[in-house]
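To: structure desk
From: M.T.
Subject: fold request, one chain
Message: Could you run this one when you get a chance? Sequence is below, nothing fancy, just the single chain.
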Amino acid sequence: MSSIFCCSSIKAYRPARLDHEAKFDNFMRWTQADPGVPANGSSLVSDAKYAVQLVRQVNYGPQESIRYFIPVGNNAAFLEVSEDALLSANFQKLNSFKNFRCEEHNKFFELNLYQENPINKHHWRANLGRPARDIDLALREVKVEVEVMPAPSTEEKATTVSSSQERPSSDLGRELSPSDESHSAGVPDNQASEVEVEFEFEVHEKKSLAQLLVTCSTRISTLRPMLQFLLPGVGASLGSNSLLSLLSLDCVNRELDLGLNYEDLWESELTSDNISIFLNSCIELSGGESVSLADIEELVDRAMVYIDSLKSKQVLGRTRFENIINRVLESNASEAWISQHESKIRQILASGPSEELLLNSRQKDEEMLQHRTQRKDVETIATWFTKGHHPLDDDSENYENDHYYGSNWENEQMKDYTACDKECGYCGNCDY
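Reply: Done. Structure tokens follow.
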């Protein structure tokens, strides 16, 4: 088993009885028989009824390997195949998986089931799931063909023209079609028409994909320097749900390969309050019963203490954020909100925030901003009419002080301003 798993002491993690339980049982019995290094069976993929994907990773850490196996014989043995072989055979992922964990080696294993798509035979994408490394493999193949195929030179054009002129008159101006080739090989007419339709479909599909690839690459190359200029300023104002904004920025940075560094923001924003707000927003989006923010924060505090205690495996940034969230989801499975919203939260961590979650967060920020504006207006009006700040009171008091008006100025006696006989005006005894 050591060649497939790390050891024989692995245990099922949250086991459940599935519709495809027999397929997983066959694979696990084969691994327990110590098969050694399995042989390559990529040439047998087209005859396989199903395939098993084995994802091996460090618990709360990076992935180590992704392998694929197909059953042979009476499902008693398995052969290892390549991802490209499954992609060519149009295998797609089923909604059926099992998880295993090894506490001794701190490893986590996930088994996913794949089967050939019986409906869509013409595929240009395949869902080979986690982490979808080659989800755009068909696009890459078209890109290689476009880049490798050189433009015809002048000599080649001249050779083509001369060869076409040497043909018989019945074949002038016409290339050899797939139907001609099939007739020459003795293929029936109905099969030849099917081959011709399929050939035209594939040619049209490749041309469309090539045009799409060129258009997307041009737009991305134009937008990349703009985003590199704008996004660093966005980090200064992350809004009420700072970790949701930071997760969105980090997803854009990774997908477009912008080369921006958000480690300082992750370190400053990765607090217990912010993580609780992020989880609460995910819970509110999924609906159901509301959860107390204090209850969420209690679980977050415990998870942060546990993650920080792993000094030998201490990580920073988004990885630490994901480890804390995973620890919260696994620490107390008895919580109703965890079992109800776990899959939704894990999907947000893996694929990024959904449009609905972002719109909900933006609406809350706008409501909060509007509330702050209204509150500020009320405080300004209250301050305006507070005693000591009214402009009319200030002007009236200043005018009264400047003109020496008292409260009883009307009762004062009239003074005699008649000049004395000396009429000097300097004695100080008269009012002149």
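Reply (cont.): Residues 122-126, 129-151, 157-187 have pLDDT under 50 and may be disordered. Let me know if you need anything else for the meeting.
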